[in-house]
Write a structure and sequence with these properties.
By secondary structure, the chain is α+β, with helices and mostly antiparallel strands. The strands form eight sheets. It has a five-stranded mixed sheet. Strands 16-15-14-18-19 form a five-stranded antiparallel sheet. It has a four-stranded antiparallel sheet with strand order 5-4-7-8. It is 36% helix and 20% strand. It has 24 helices and 26 strands. The chain has six domains: 62 residues, Helix hairpin bin (Helix Hairpins, Orthogonal Bundle), CATH 1.10.287; 234 residues, DNA ligase/mRNA capping enzyme (D-amino Acid Aminotransferase, Chain A, domain 1), CATH 3.30.470.30; 84 residues, Beta Barrel (OB fold (Dihydrolipoamide Acetyltransferase, E2P)); 73 residues, DNA polymerase, domain 1 (Orthogonal Bundle); 71 residues, 5' to 3' exonuclease, C-terminal subdomain (DNA polymerase, domain 1), CATH 1.10.150; 77 residues, BRCT domain (Rossmann fold, 3-Layer(aba) Sandwich). The structure holds 2-(butylsulfanyl)adenosine. 2-(butylsulfanyl)adenosine binds next to β3, β8 and β13.
């Protein structure tokens, strides 16, 4: 290959990766496997190292968030970033409509657009000649803060527009407004992960998104599951549309994510009719929505109507009723996390919130209890928003009866009874007893979990038994268990013991990425583990890596690098690794040697539906992925095969409509064995 060829390959790769990124993160419809994507990124890194002059700001490698800032600069918005007036019921909406119709009769013919009011943070994204150059927070509406480096790490933000090559006429200057937020399921997963790591959990998705955007170290932002939806053009060098519906269409065409829930209504009567529907779908929207925004479709007219204070007259937000109720806090329980962090939770008088009975709620940390002066027997407000785990907002002090007792932070660990410690200036209280059984239980629970060693059949109950009986004092002890050992435990008979030993044995051949994740190194979760495995290929090499070398890996910032180094330097961990080595459990990254086209299912996308005769869904997925295939949750035109089990539902219909081939589990297994 000549230099010219390589330079051409590099530029083509940048564009192609940006496109696949868009397919994955914006359209939710990938057309290549994660593995192929990773290989492309790897190749691009190699080429960019050779030709640094071609590393442009819109290169997908620039999403890594490598440089740390000292402070945020200011950005003056090209036009005021306005807010919205609120309505609380249909009467308020009607009054709004009458007011603006009186001001300008053309309102009657404008049409309206309904959009979800996303409970996130406004961001303003600047594109020059199609390239993302700058991004700001809302600030005071006139001046915001420059958070470009953080925004770059959000995969749904296009670094260059248009993303699809056939789209023409992107204005030289194009400034877009959108909302950054976290999907409810990602928020819960993030908190679960933090809980597992024994770290402080987040209070709610909005605050977490806000905190993540205001990080001076973009590597931190990169690891938060932030997402973007856009809804307005703030400034443009050439007018591209004069309607709100047209705006959404243009944004979509250029490659920005736009909510699929947006809809156009011909008349105000239609708006009123649709509002009932919006009330019903609230729970189906996978992110927190605090209302419906009703916008005049005719933007010229909306502009002419002007604004009152910071609220434009041409739009209004109908707020959803708050999902908050009060109940009695009967007691406060305490969990001991993997690193010994103690986390309090509220035990509640069961209460219904939006159709769900809530018995427990998050209390975040002990500082929160103190700050809010939450007492046992208090009547407290609880919030359940979207699918997020319910949390306590605070006590209703006015209704106290006198039987409320202040809560005392336990001075002894509820599990091992040892003294609890609190580092000056930190919120967390720790049990520092490294052999505290509760911590070991949490650690082993993580070690055997699906994302880690995936030891099937080893639930929390068994982990607790193994730790309590002293059979398991560290992870490696799991591999020394025998049938005789297991039979001493309550509830174990021959078959159960054999099955468990079989699963334990199966896990010996896991990938390096899984093994790393399983070790539970602080800050090293699933994503970092895969990145590290790919970069270092073996545990021996990773163990020897310097902090600088660790930081060369995309997504590994200084804190994680230090935490990895510390982990490998600890004597007890070195002993643990020695033990694993003796047991021949020493995974290496193998993907390098396997070329993707050698794998039987390379390039094929599968969807699984219904109950399969022998495999669980996760097993089937894992087998497909191991064989080079990819699985997705929904059927699209890119799906190659629908694996059909019993009681299949709508996916089957969709596959039939799209003419996608269905196969049985048996056929799938045949295909996997075929090479
Ligand atoms: S339009 C003139 N549309 O709600 C444009 N705002 O309470 C005014 N928001 O600050 C904003 N989703 O951060 C608009 N679909 C949407 C929105 C939305 C969420 C936020 C936005 C704004 C706040 C107003």
């Amino acid at each position: 290959m000549t230099e010219m060829d390589e330079r051409r390959e590099l530029t083509a790769l940048q564009r192609e990766i940006n496109y696949h990124n868009y397919r994955y993160h914006v359209l939710d419809d990938p057309i290549i496997s994660d593995y192929e994507y990773d290989m492309m990124i790897k190749r691009l890194h190699e080429l960019e190292e050779r030709y640094p002059d071609l590393v442009t700001p819109d290169s997908p490698t620039q999403r890594s968030g490598a440089q740390v800032l000292e402070k945020f600069q200011k950005i003056v918005h090209p036009a005021p970033i306005l807010s919205l007036a609120n309505a609380f019921n249909k009467e308020d909406l009607k009054a709004w409509y009458e007011r603006i119709t009186k001001l300008d009769n053309r309102v009657k013919n404008s049409g309206f657009v309904l959009e979800p009011k996303i409970d996130g943070l406004t961001v303003v994204l600047h594109y020059e000649n199609g390239v993302f150059v700058r991004g700001a927070t809302r600030g005071d509406g006139e001046i915001g803060e420059d958070i470009t480096a953080n925004l770059r790490t959000i995969r749904s933000i296009p670094l260059r527009i248009p993303v699809e090559e056939n789209v023409k006429n992107v204005p030289d200057r194009f400034v877009v407004r959108g909302e950054v937020f976290i999907f409810s399921k990602d928020f819960d997963a993030l908190n679960k992960q933090l809980e597992k790591l024994g770290e402080k959990t987040y209070q709610n998705p909005r605050n977490t998104a806000a905190g993540s955007l205001r990080q001076l170290d973009p590597a931190i932002t990169r690891n938060r599951p932030l997402y973007l939806l856009t809804y307005a053009i703030v400034d443009t060098s050439i007018n591209v549309t004069s309607t709100q519906w047209g705006t959404l269409e243009i944004l979509r065409q250029f490659g920005f994510p736009v909510s699929k829930y947006c809809e156009r209504c011909q008349s105000f009567d239609e708006v009123l009719n649709r509002i009932d529907h919006w009330m019903e779908i609230r729970d189906q929207i996978p992110f927190e929505v605090d209302g419906v925004v009703i916008k005049l479709d005719n933007l010229d007219l909306a502009g002419k109507l002007g604004y009152v204070g910071k609220d434009p007259r041409g739009a209004i937000a109908l707020k959803y009723p708050a999902r908050e109720v009060s109940t009695i806090l009967k007691d406060i329980g305490v969990n001991v996390g993997r690193t010994g962090v103690l986390t309090p939770y509220a035990i509640l008088e069961p209460v219904e919130i939006g159709g769900v009975i809530v018995k427990q709620a998050t209390l975040h940390n002990f500082d929160f209890i103190k700050e809010k002066d939450i007492r046992i027997n208090d009547r407290v407000m609880i919030k359940r928003a979207g699918d997020v785990i319910p949390y306590v907002i605070g006590p209703i002090i006015e209704v106290r009866k006198g039987n409320e007792t202040p809560y005392l932070i336990p001075d002894k660990c509820p599990s091992c009874g040892q003294e609890v410690e609190n580092v000056e200036g930190e919120v967390a209280y720790y049990c520092v007893n490294s052999s505290c059984p509760a911590q070991l239980v949490r650690n082993v629970e993580h070690f055997v979990s699906k994302e880690a060693m995936n030891i099937e059949g080893m639930g929390i109950k068994i982990v607790e038994q193994l730790v309590a009986s002293g059979l398991v004092k560290d992870y490696a002890d799991l591999y020394l268990l025998t049938k005789t050992h297991l039979l001493t435990l309550e509830g174990f008979a021959e078959k159960k013991a054999e099955n468990l030993l079989y699963s334990i044995n199966q896990s010996r051949n896991c990938s390096l990425a899984r093994f790393l994740n399983a070790l539970g190194i602080r800050g090293v979760g699933e994503v970092a583990s895969s990145d590290l495995a790919r970069a270092f290929l073996s545990l021996d090499r990773l163990a020897l890596a310097s902090i600088d070398q660790l930081q060369m890996v995309e997504g590994i910032g200084p804190n994680i690098a230090i935490s990895i180094k510390d982990w490998f330097e600890r004597n007890s961990n070195q002993e643990l690794l020695e033990k694993f080595k003796k047991l021949s459990i020493w995974p290496v990254e193998e993907r390098q040697q396997e070329r993707p086209e050698d794998l039987p299912l390379s390039g094929l996308i599968f969807v699984i539906t219904g109950t399969l005769p022998t495999l669980s869904r996760d097993e089937a997925k894992a087998m497909i992925e191991k064989a080079g295939g990819k699985t997705t949750d929904s059927v699209s035109k890119n799906t190659n095969f629908l694996v059909l089990g019993e009681n299949a539902g709508s996916k089957l219909e969709k596959a039939r409509t799209l003419g996608i081939q269905t196969i049985s589990e048996e056929k799938l297994l045949e295909m996997i064995k075929s090479k």
